[in-house]
Every structure is written in structure tokens, then in C-alpha cells.
Write a structure and sequence with these properties.
Helix content is 34%, strand content 13%. The protein is α+β, with helices and mostly antiparallel strands. It comes from Klebsiella pneumoniae.
């Protein structure tokens, strides 16, 4: 086994400009439901931009986001977009629950970045979501893909 020393060993802390490393931090990562900046470009546009940088097709991006959400792979353990009660199980629950007409979505903040999904009949809050999560229900192309993955055999299509 090859043992590697932890961290950098070629420079001392006083030789490192720690502040400059802040510039390397991502501004947003829609795949992990992370956004550090406010205003400017929409969160869902930043997701599409990142997907293009990764050379992902629309179906690949869609299934990747859905899979990451049901696995609970959000930044900082956030529950936004985790539309399942079986966290950690690869399933199509994200798409099934996103498209469920029994859920009504309303903005939960002034910036319309966060949303609450409530039961249409009782008004009871069921889920929280971000703009990235809901774009798969609002954009016609992404919704069509989400509908395929939400079908009874969609779990197999999605690789679950």
C-alpha cells in the first residue's frame, strides 16, 4: 500500500495565499443543489452550463440530477429536491413525486430560489425544492424526459 502524506507538503501555510483559494470555489453546482451567489444568471441556467461543460446530454443530465437527489447527495445535507422517503435507494421517486399533480408548489423565499411543495387537498408541506429541481417539471423538454423516467418502467430506463 502506498501511504500519501495529508495535504500539501511543498509549501508552508505562511507561503500560501489562502484568500486566493476563495476564487477557486464554485459559484454554483446545480447537481448538488449548491449556490453561493445571489442574483445574476438563473440557477437552472447555471445547471445547464455545467452540464454542457461536462458534455452531458439532456437525458444524462436529467437522470443524473434525479439520481443524486434520491441518494441524498446534496450539498451540506440539504433536503431540497429529495422527493423520496427511501433516501439512499436509487429509484425514480424524484420524477414520480415531482410530477405528482397532488402537490402544489409555491415560492418559499423572496428570490424564488426555494419552493415548498404542499398536498393540494390538506395544504400540508411535503417537500422543499430549488429552481433546479422544479425546472424538470416546468421546461417542456426536461419535463418530457422526467415523464419518461417517472413511468412504471422508468426506473429501469433511468438505470435504477
Amino acid at each position: 500500500m502506498c501511504r500519501l502524506p495529508p495535504g500539501r507538503v511543498d509549501a508552508l501555510p505562511e507561503q500560501t495565499d489562502v484568500e486566493s483559494f476563495d476564487l477557486l470555489q464554485p459559484l454554483a453546482d446545480g447537481f448538488r443543489n449548491y449556490r453561493r451567489i445571489e442574483g445574476g444568471v438563473s440557477t437552472e441556467t447555471l445547471l445547464i452550463d455545467k452540464a454542457q461543460q461536462l458534455t452531458l446530454t439532456a437525458p444524462e443530465m436529467t437522470v443524473l440530477v434525479g439520481g443524486l437527489r434520491v441518494l441524498g447527495a446534496n450539498y451540506d445535507g440539504s433536503k431540497h429536491g429529495v422527493f423520496t422517503d427511501r433516501v439512499g435507494v436509487l429509484s425514480n421517486d424524484f420524477f414520480v413525486n415531482l410530477l405528482d399533480m397532488a402537490t402544489v408548489w409555491k415560492a418559499a423565499d423572496d428570490n424564488a430560489e426555494l419552493f415548498t411543495g404542499s398536498d393540494r387537498k390538506t395544504g400540508e408541506a411535503k417537500y422543499s425544492a430549488t429552481r433546479v429541481d422544479l425546472v424538470f417539471g416546468s421546461n417542456s423538454v426536461l419535463r418530457a424526459l422526467a415523464e419518461v423516467y417517472a413511468c412504471a418502467d422508468g426506473a429501469a430506463e433511468a438505470g435504477a
